[in-house]
Amino acid sequence: MGTGPAKRTAAPRPRALTGRATVLIVVFVALALAYTYPLRVYLAQKSEIAQMEADQAAQRQQIALDQQELAKWKDPEYLRAQARKRLSYVLPGETPLLVINDPAGAARESGNKAAPATPDRWYDTLWSSVQSADAEPRN
């Protein structure tokens, strides 16, 4: 019985992926790729619908504001007030008074100096400063 040490035999290792597991993984990847495009289209359509609903709500609000404005214009008193304000209309027997902004005329009438002249354009100021710098004597 002493024939020597026992010979070690290698046990077969199980394969990491069997054929069935590989086929199953390929099917899952194919399904994922097949559902990606329709899912993307679905999500894009959902966002478009949400945007359109928001636009529609804003338009409804604008329509409500316009209807309120139209109701104001149907009131004769509001119409008279707007005619006075915008078109300077007066009722018969009233004396219209129109104020014109004329600072030079007001200064003449009050005896004060006229309003100061408007400043020169920027490029005129720049050119005059260049000319005056050129005219200065050099040391």
Structure notes:
The chain has 139 residues and is an all-alpha fold. The protein has a domain at 23-88. It contains 4 helices and no strands. It has helices at residues 19-73, 76-87, 103-110, 122-135. The N and C termini lie far apart (125 Å).
What topology emerges from the helices and strands here?
Elements: H1 19-73, H2 76-87, H3 103-110, H4 122-135
Features of the shown structure:
FtsL/DivIC; membrane; 4 helices; transmembrane; mainly alpha; elongated; 139 residues; single chain
What is Rg?
45 Å
List unreliable stretches of 5+ residues: none
State the distance separating the first and last CA atoms. Answer: 125 Å
Backbone shape: elongated
Query: What's the total count of β strands?
Result: 0
Count of helical segments? Answer: 4
Strand content: under 5%
Helix content: 55-70%
**What integer is the average pLDDT?**
86
Secondary structure category = mainly alpha
